[in-house]
Amino acid sequence: MNYSVEHAKVKELIEKAQCTGASPLDVVNCIIEQLRSAGYTPTTTQLLDANVDPAERLEQARFIRFEARREGDKNLHIFTFALLKPGGVYKPLWLQSAVIEK
């Protein structure tokens, strides 16, 4: 399976959705919606700080990492975003995606 093409479609969906919000959780919820519409089931979501450690408080979040699965696919898909806050509104910036093959 060509995961780069599949993940490019996910990236396009998320960019078209223009996920923004007053809180990192607004962005997380929007991305989860887009992952589901692309056929993924998110299994883990992590808000990470500038050191890529789990953020202790929402306002410390600088990155978001999602782990997701697709029905019929035993592999784990990972999607990572930077969390920007221009003008006081949170928005994601796609950084990378990966697949852990099982």
Q: Unreliable stretches, pLDDT < 50, 5 or more residues?
A: none
Evaluate the radius of gyration: 13 Å
- The neighbouring-strand order within the major sheet is 1-2-3-4
Count of beta strands: 4
Tally of contiguous helical segments: 2
Q: State the helical fraction.
A: 25-40%
Annotation keywords:
102 residues, alpha+beta, four-stranded antiparallel sheet, 2 helices
Describe the protein.
This protein is an alpha+beta fold and 102 residues long. It has one domain (3-100). Helix content is 28%, strand content 38%. It has helices at residues 3-17, 24-37; strands at 40-48, 63-70, 73-84, 91-100. Strands 1-2-3-4 form a 4-stranded antiparallel β-sheet, covered by helices on one side. The radius of gyration is 13 Å and the shape is globular. The model has no long low-confidence stretch (mean pLDDT 96).
Chain-wise SSE layout:
Blueprint: H1 3-17, H2 24-37, E1 40-48, E2 63-70, E3 73-84, E4 91-100
Helix pairs in contact: 1-2
Outline of the structure:
The chain has one domain.
